[in-house]
Backbone:
């Protein structure tokens, strides 16, 4: 395809509100290739740098609305696109929920999209330390006694979940293979805990055991 340079000069002059004679083009004609655009539905990925105030943290996963968008562009470009990132969303010393419209990074204009920005919601809550006494789970096939039979699990939890935390929401176990290996002590492992809980420590980390005949 091609169009005359004079046409371009006239359009530019109209936009700038100047005389067409004041706009000069180097070439008589401008040539370009055109390609039918393809479309593809891809997920939106949040690009963020959120720093919270002390004793505050992000609760759960950010919510992006819409979670997917339709992008348009040349087929050779779309074939390499698996997702679309947002522009960088940054905060420092955040201590409250974040709700903001964030633009999309469309590969430096190579792609077009059916929306220009998405709504990002991030829940920021106050957190605190909590400690629970949790029994150590022993498989029914093992005839052993543990000393001690419980451990103290210390973790960080959101204030709103503090009262609902119970010992049976955590699962602490041992590795039976250590008994077969003749280990004097058994390692304690926390292999189950609620979401949005950050582990600090399990005490003790190893326990004694006695085989019951």
Residues:
């Amino acid at each position: 395809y091609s169009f005359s340079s004079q046409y371009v000069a006239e359009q530019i002059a109209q936009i700038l509100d100047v005389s067409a004679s004041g706009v000069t083009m180097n070439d008589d004609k401008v040539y370009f290739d055109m390609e039918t655009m393809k479309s593809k539905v891809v997920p939106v990925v949040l690009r963020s740098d959120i720093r919270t105030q002390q004793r505050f943290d992000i609760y759960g996963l950010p919510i992006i609305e819409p979670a997917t968008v339709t992008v348009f562009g040349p087929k050779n470009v779309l074939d390499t696109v698996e997702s679309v990132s947002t522009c960088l969303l940054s905060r420092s010393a955040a201590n409250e929920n974040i709700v903001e419209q964030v633009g999309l990074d469309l590969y430096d204009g190579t792609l077009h999209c059916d929306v220009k920005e998405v709504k990002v919601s991030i829940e920021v809550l106050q957190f605190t330390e909590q400690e629970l006494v949790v029994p150590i789970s022993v498989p029914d096939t093992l005839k052993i006694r543990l000393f001690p039979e419980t451990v103290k699990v210390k973790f960080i939890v959101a204030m709103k979940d503090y009262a609902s935390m119970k010992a049976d929401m955590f699962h602490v176990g041992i590795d039976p293979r250590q008994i077969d290996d003749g280990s004097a002590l058994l390692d304690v492992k926390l292999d189950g805990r609620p979401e949005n809980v950050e582990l600090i420590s399990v005490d003790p980390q190893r326990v004694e055991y006695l085989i019951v005949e």
